[in-house]
Write a structure and sequence with these properties.
Shape: globular
Largest sheet: 2 strands, antiparallel
Distance between the termini: 30 Å
Number of helices: 15
Number of strands: 2
CATH architecture: Up-down Bundle
Amino acid sequence: MTAPESTPEPLLSAAVVRLTCLNFLFFSVYLLYFPTLPFFIERLGGAKSEIGLLIGMSSLASLVARPFVGYAVDAYGRRPVMLTGLAVFVLNALLYNVVQSVASVAVLRLLTGASMAIFVTSASASIADVAAPSRRGEVMSYYGLANSLAFAIGPALGGFIIHAGWLTGFDDALTSRMGWLSGAETGDLHFTSLFLFSAAVGVLALGIAALGGETRPTGVGAGRKLDLGNLFSRAGVFPASINFASSFVMASMVTFMPLFARDHGLENAGSVFMVYAGMVIMMRLSLGRYMDRYPRSWFIVPGIASLSLSMIVMATASHPAQMFVAAAIFGAGAGSFQPAMMALLVDRCAPTERGRALSTFTLGNDLGLSMGALLLGVVVEHAGFRAAFSVSATMAGLGALFFVIATQRAHGWRQPVVARA
């Protein structure tokens, strides 16, 4: 007599859907700034190297905050930390309206980075808590679809808002009645509307998050002291180093691609991000079901290699069509790499250290974005955009090589998926 087949664990739950929606809302408004903030800083008189510095400062702030956020997520719970992150983002969006100089932007970029660290770490720990262990890779892949949809909507919407001529009357009427909003006036670009819109969506996300419950497993973090051992996770160090390489590439895309695209006949770079996002969505929908059947490495290595290839194409681009091809290749790589790398980390860490492990993992993201924006800003200033894209391609290639060497030595390259509850 054969044993009855076990019932598959459910893929979606109310908590998974809620967290995915929150992820979408947060990143949609966070990404409004990707194709727009370089122009904002430029209109305030910032040089290209200063644009790289200011964009990178957000990730530097996130880098400093994440270890403490990881501790708080495990020690005090996911929900209160998430609410704090969303509240900080709303405040930050409103304060952009009082900016009067490039130096003022620096302070707000630090606040932006803090809000990102707080929200992403708490939301990532929450989704890891509620995902069924046997379907973790698939849940992570679909959860990441929210980011992809945000990339399809946020940058394009941001570019649309600042260039929409019909918003001129709205901005003028608003700033004439409330003078404190006039700091965001930059000629014909409508940054007042942009910042107020992002604050409004942030308030909506804050309300949705407030309706949800706590997801932290019982007993996790109880009595944990704030010391160095509880700020970092050894399990997250190697994934963080690979994440650094991929994020270095992302720095070149979000910081300098909009300006490069404008110089080559494409005014609104949001359309390039839409191509990227469309490819990520396609990859995650098609690969999600396989990420729990095959080794994570099968998705990670081709993903990083694709990121490198996309930068080679971008470095040689001379018209918009080539930029769209580069964005599609970039999206294919990101759609494969990110969910598999995150699932690999959660597989190999205990529930008691999820917050620390995920914060350590995303430190690689912060370090890659900040160092990438800073270093590539110098490269652009002295050697141009194409040289910066070439440096990014090299960094991603080195990341893929490091992963192969490290996992081959540990035989992790061939190991099946082993997920922790």
